[in-house]
Amino acid sequence: MFDTVPAEPDDDAGVIAVEEVVVCAAALLWTWAIGDVMAVDHQPLRPGEKAAWIAAVMLLPAAGALMWLLVGRPATHTEEAPATHPVSPRPDVHRK
């Protein structure tokens, strides 16, 4: 009743897969950048700078996210947490 024609091999299958990966990576970067801009405290940014970064990331998705990542993101300093119990320089001396 129905004539079936053998399917031709799809030569563009690899190209489509690469495009999908790039689009997904860009979407993830864009989503992360929006969340990261919004999560930054106001202290490291000047007044109005946070709103400008949100606008840049929203209006220029890939370029804005990359600019935030490379230029706008405040540096995070990893400082060692102070000891909760100071160690005496002389263990034989006990404080009361």
TrEMBL record:
It is found in: Cell membrane. InterPro entries: CLS_N. Pfam families: PLDc_N. Residues 28-73 form the Cardiolipin synthase N-terminal domain. Keywords: Cell membrane, Membrane, Transmembrane, Transmembrane helix. The keyword Transmembrane applies. The chain crosses the membrane at residues 20-39, 51-71. One of its GO terms (cellular component) is plasma membrane. The keyword Transferase does not apply. It is a multi-pass membrane protein. This is Cardiolipin synthase N-terminal domain-containing protein.
